[in-house]
Amino acid sequence: MSDSAREAARPGEVRASDEGPGPRLYNSRIFRNYIEFLRARYPSVDVEEILGHAGITMHEVNDPRVWLRQDQANRFHEILDARTGNPYISREAGRFLFSSRGMAGVKRAVFGLLRPNQAYALVPRFIGMMTRATTVEIVSQGSSRVELKSTPLPGVREERFQCENRKGSFEAIATHFTGEYAQVEEFSCFHDGADCCHYGVSWRPSRFERWVPVRNILLALAVVGCGAAFPLLPIVAWSLLTLGTLGAVGLVFYLVARLRIRELTRVIDNQGDTTNELMTELRARHDNAMLGQKIGEAVSSTVDIGRLLEAAVEVLQDRLQFDRGGIQLVDEDDSLTYQAWFTGQQPQGVAFQVVRDHVLHSRKMLLLNDPAEIDRWFAGRD
Q: Are residues 169 and 235 in the same domain?
């Protein structure tokens, strides 16, 4: 890695609150996929450092309503490439797209289908959920091949790494149906001077699809062969030949049917997994909505701050999956004025004091919900 790359990727140059030029083009789901990919394949990479350099917060990444700018995407990839040292990181992250928990809705739509060509027909729709920078259209489609064009909208200039990420996602769709990545051929590219990126995506047919023609040919040969042998063989020999042929053909039909059932079972299992992810997301959204409603009711029912805090922590304890927690209010001099805890008393210990002092002095929210992040944050602190 060059010194210039390290210098360019130095964290802390852009804060999450900074506003830059340009429209918000890219949905946070894209960045969440990158983060989950990093945690799975590059656990030693500091996620907070990556996001901080790009001017993105973890809350934005986890909120699918958030859209981010081109300059943020550029800085994100800049430090990502420097920290991983992998020039193919964007394409590999694209292949990981349908393993991301943030893509539950898209997975349910795509992987609920029975054939890859049906799934690729939905590409323009799910690309529209991910980016406002380009439009994707299907040029032609066959049983095991599809051609797509991605055209940037006026005034938008994507970078090459985003094209690579898109190709990786195209490759990943076929794996659900065939167990292998699709082959992506790029006929023309916007970054090479063309007006659009033109892709050819092909995939190997599933085992069921490969065996269906064999089954049909064997059936036709069996019918023709037995019919032609009838006047040439004694009736007993012809009957034995016909029974043997029908048995062989029946076995092939049985094996092909088993392959079909196996594919349908995989689709149903994937649908069940995706449905569970969606139900978890729906429960979380419901709890968040009820949390806001209950706290709003508490605010409107009393003007006493102490009672308000007590009511608020009761709601937090009921709606959030935590065994302890609380609220502290401080004045401009950092003096504690009000507090309420749903463990009954204020937590003690060095860790609590370190976190509280950091929040008070930095005036920034701090979220530590990953064991690895907690270990890194407390490393070297007194």
A: no
Q: Is 356 left (phi over 0), alpha (psi -120 to 50) or beta?
A: alpha
pTM of the model: 0.65
* Residue 325 covered by a domain: no
With 80 as the cut, is the pLDDT of residue 374 above it?
no
* Residue 187: C-alpha distances to residues 71, 92, 112, 191, 253 (Å): 28, 21, 30, 12, 40
The percent of residues above 90 in pLDDT, for the chain, comes to 13
Specify whether 232 is located in the same domain as 169: no
- Cβ neighbours of 359 (radius 10 Å): 14
Q: Which two tokens stand for residue 124?
A: 């323009």
Backbone angles phi, psi at 203, to 5 degrees: -145, 155
Phi–psi pair at 354, nearest 5 degrees? -65, -45
| Chain segment 197-242, per-residue pLDDT in tens | 999 999 888 777 778 888 888 888 888 888 888 888 888 888 888 8
Q: Is residue 372 part of a domain?
A: no
176 vs 233: CA distance, rounded Å:
50
What is the domain extent for residue 189?
118-202
What are the pLDDT digits (tens) for 20-64? 567 889 999 899 999 999 988 898 888 888 988 888 888 888 888
| Domain stop point among 275, 301, 327 | 301
Q: On the CB side of 52, how many CA atoms lie within 13 Å of its CA?
A: 12
Confidence tier at 141 by pLDDT (50, 70, 90): confident
> Into how many domains does the chain fold?
3
